[in-house]
Design brief:
7-stranded mixed sheet, single chain, globular, mainly beta, 4-stranded antiparallel sheet, 0% helix
Length: 119
């Protein structure tokens, strides 16, 4: 099993920055990719960003390109999401998720961390 624990959420003013962390434990050597998702009240969960674990190849949702940066520290088994130029529309619960090698779905999810952006 893999356990994921997010941290770093909080309240920030529009235009500000926040960095989220996702600490992975357990059988982390199984991880192929780690991603961030978010869900605002009354809305569907949506994809934010992803990174492959070994290669560090990244991909982003259009709405966050140029503002958010996903990265990983292999030695610390930690994935980060640096969020800059935040807007009210970024307000959501942010979740970390991981996929195993050869799997087409996310098997592991964190508990989520709240990000609130004031206008």
């Amino acid at each position: 099993q893999v356990q994921l624990v997010e941290s770093g959420g909080g309240l920030v003013r529009a235009g500000g920055s926040l960095r989220l962390s996702c600490a992975a434990s357990g059988h982390t050597w199984y991880i192929y990719a780690a991603s961030w998702f978010r869900q605002a009240p009354g809305k569907e969960r949506e994809f934010v960003a992803t990174t492959t674990w070994s290669g560090g190849s990244t991909s982003y949702a259009d709405l966050v390109k140029g503002r958010f940066t996903i990265s990983r520290d292999i030695a610390k088994n930690t994935v980060y999401l640096q969020m800059d130029s935040l807007t009210f529309e970024d307000t959501a619960i942010y979740y970390c998720a991981a996929r195993r090698v050869g799997k087409d779905r996310y098997d592991y999810w964190g508990q989520g961390t709240q990000v609130t952006v004031s206008s």
